[in-house]
């Protein structure tokens, strides 16, 4: 296991660099017999695509996916599904000036020390562009989980920079460029416009959730369901914090409050975020992510070059001023990939995967 | 990979139940030629041992470790190191009354649904007792990392329930039962005494850090160093949130502030928590954990039994009112295990493991 | 994955040295709810036990197994099953004279070069004693496969040194110390007695077979069922060759003869050995193994010491003059472990595991 | 780990079907900084290419490889290397007549039972065409091992059908279409011509060897070097037997003969095939393979269709009458991949990889 593979039984091996010829992934372990075509995957890729509003990078990438294998006459065959996305809008010259120095807060420094060589074009392997194959693979997992169990994944932004976003309704999420669950996003537009003018970037907080989750998913020690969710989410570019259920609010809670009491009709609350002892309960899985500000900014910063000499770094090129804005569909995909893998692991050991009976009431909105 | 193994190259396979005959682990992949004896491991086990203050479970377990293999004439041979800890103070009858019902907030419910069978004695496999083998394995990793690179691991409690604990000095940590970095723990004693009288439990926040960390550890996608730390930490009983570096504070930060600027003498700050792009920079690794309140409490709770009928659950037996109190040495061990695994992974691919030059200044505090 | 684990979903992690305090293994991934007690395992351990005839090592080891975890009230719980076997009859002084030199044909040389340190007592980790935990784990796999599918495993010796052993009946196998499928073993007794007097050792050939095998087990590329069988068998001490079905006889066969033709009642022959394209067909799995002569012999041999100086090596101590004699139950266990792992892998991806319909006629003999 | 990945640290994930749009692989874990271009890989692909003599399939495939990632300015970056080979000469209609029935000796039957669906075009995933990505990945491993240690891989055919091929010299191998180590291949030409006229196919035996092998590669239990070689080789289409060193000849050998004696100048013989106790000794690795006759033959055979009804099967299309003819470069590639993986595993645990001192004399020719 060499690092670029996510999952054990539904495993996704990711390849590519931001400005190389192509990016993609190989999905191994997909159950046979599921209908699958490129449009099923394109749908999710389009949700994270760059260039769709003024608040994200202006790089224009169609992100057209090609299925190279594993599907025959519109159905999965059980053999590896290779997905290919050609890069089309690389402007590598934009990055020439940072090839010999390190952007503060960027992977430049650590890649160079690890490998002694790095592809500086667009961040190379460290680019958020490499989340596209993850989203593509996630689309396959989502489809299977939905068809088998009715599992659905949703996500939204809950804060952008210092602006908290209240939850109004999932219905609003597709209708604004922020994945914000509110009807009026003027405050967010204004905040982002001011930020862009200042040549700065900001962080974000994202919430993702899964409903209609089978009960019993997760290995109790060490590969707990929450542990693998944390692994997947913290493995996403720029994520600095992960919470399940009540998260850091648990610290100040008491046991009498935190522990979700049960009734014959289901749980009364969901501080657990749908996971107890590392195993899914059937309640909604609830995850929250902290995403740091983009490190590629136009404001000048103090840094050093590869020879250790002081330099001032200014990053031109086309960057997301808030990488969190496009993170929602990616986090949904990651959650789907983790649940898919654990559904298959559970099926291997315990022979069936099923929803909880009596049905578990979903958490509130 | 069946769930109970942590790590790929320095891998720890954990076994046992709270009230079974024994618990333990097998460490595979330890480099040969390192001095190792039981006292090296016992030292760390004693730090997490139950029964050492009135604020933790009164179960008396010597937790005496026996090395069964992998060490010859006081040196590791490169073959698996099996560690055995016999359980001695099981009082299984304490748990008879909860065998047929589910404690709110406890793994009872999810285990029963996953496996169709569970060992209810002391929580069985879901007991925090199973962190002892993790600590034992961590002691081996710590020793190797210290001898090779001078890496040291420290941890402390930063909040217990609603009481925030300021950082005064690492020197205080060993001198109180809370791993608190303060000289005066009277407020914590009082808080815990009141809680115990109320028959309730509380959460906690823990901070762990590693210093003198080699540069270049971590696979950028998906097995990032921070992702694997999050996996290890969220895999610890009762953890509901994990932060690296600035964590959730990153959300409201701007790029000009968050990105740690570099000078020829090193980094000026450590919002990154020692990790950029999933790879260690050589700065201190900084991790923060949210730990939920213990679910086994004496206060009566509404729940259901295995037949779905309503019951009132009261948990007797001997429990930690705040599992966070003993979590510090465990979290240190987990951090050591993750760094050890990545040190070997890095050595495999890149051929050497080394500290950053120029030396990276440690973060403050 | 650090080398001492066999299997991915039903995984066995083996530990111990020949003359250390104990040997054993941890089985992870066993399905929950199966009846299991120590006697189920002891039965198979007794079949490979040393000291039971004059043709094998005279070391007396009861090989009493203790189940440390994973079983509650006589049933597997789905959590790791740790098995412990204490070593009782170590005579380490027997081996003092070979600690500084290398026995021709023995792992002494390669261990010393790999690790820079080795446990010379009884071969340390390279001892055939370490097959005991494999047999113990295999007993668990056999029980599950038999209860689920009626799968049975059998093995016999087909040649000892230059003496070919014809197949008469499986019924004879338990009634002689060679696992020979013949009524009269006088020729084998005489051959072994002469060999022992000559202070020499000999090779052997073993056949193992599985009947009532589910159809569809095996991943076509690279983890084919035959590939994983070859891995398991070649991983057994002293094995130098592995054949599936017609094996090396396939070289001179023609396609018209080799390809097993099918009829509505099943296959007409079994040159495939029950595996086509890396996937089980439901026919009997047929495996043949070549086992080399024991390298620890009393006859003097030319060798070198750790300083590269020439020495003459004579191995005293208690050794099997033909390690193949006790290999049959071990090879059966390995075959069971591989099928078990693939049964779970198949169940994960394809959702069910079943026997072929129409029933496949067993191969002859 | 889902079956289509070979190797743990230098891992190759293979995808594609014979008549799909493309085949390829992703190599993860390649050390950074090695020069690599497409020509380095094409060289080895051309050695296994179809259509190069009348004795192999007449399918014309340029097998032009494209490097999609992991190489920057001609050097490996340490990130995944994706290799793509487009299929160009598919004639899927050739296979229409066998979509509903099972060729004797072919994977048709087992795939259909495993997955409930199969891609019948050219054998789909079970086609020997899928060895091309393995060869491509092997070229990368060979280059690194050669540059680091001078390791070289060679292979030749030692029997085709009933014709034994004596070893004359490695020099002859590139000069005939059989990879035969003899100057005069007229007997082989005649044998193959007669076979083709008869509409039949035949088996073959192949030998592969590695020289200048580092000492100490291999995990003693269970992932021995010989075990992983056996896994890789038996995972190759049509292989039914694997031998290391003396192989099945070991059965009739005595310990005094089999054990390779040592002198200060090196080993006197190589019955071990370069591996003792599962670990490389530095001697040449010697492997022999039995390859079964091709199952796709023009002669009519009895079989059944997917409904269990009797049918007569005749396979038209373009097939190798002896798949063993093109197997030599594939087996070399597999040996290189296994050694590469174990070189990195050894480096992880033991910190260095080196050749034996004093130098080990190579085995005879």
From TrEMBL, chains A, B, C, D:
Recorded superkingdom: Bacteria
EC number annotated for this UniProt entry: 4.2.3.5
Sequence positions that bind FMN: 125-127, 237-238, 277, 292-296, 318
This protein's record includes keyword Lyase: yes
Pathway connected to this protein: Metabolic intermediate biosynthesis; chorismate biosynthesis; chorismate from D-erythrose 4-phosphate and phosphoenolpyruvate: step 7/7
Keywords: Amino-acid biosynthesis, Aromatic amino acid biosynthesis, FAD, Flavoprotein, FMN, Lyase, NADP
One function term, GO molecular function aspect: chorismate synthase activity
Swiss-Prot/TrEMBL cofactor(s): FMNH2
Reactions it catalyzes: 5-O-(1-carboxyvinyl)-3-phosphoshikimate = chorismate + phosphate
InterPro entries assigned: Chorismate_synth, Chorismate_synth_AroC_sf, Chorismate_synthase_CS
Pfam family, one: Chorismate_synt
EC class of the enzyme, as a word: lyase
Cofactor binding mode and count: Reduced FMN (FMNH(2)).
Amino acids binding NADP(+): 48, 54
Assembly and oligomerization: Homotetramer.
PANTHER family linked to this entry: CHORISMATE SYNTHASE
Function in brief: This reaction introduces a second double bond into the aromatic ring system.
Family: Belongs to the chorismate synthase family.
Protein name per its UniProtKB record: Chorismate synthase
Species, as recorded: Curvibacter microcysteis
High-level lineage: Bacteria, Pseudomonadati, Pseudomonadota, Betaproteobacteria, Burkholderiales
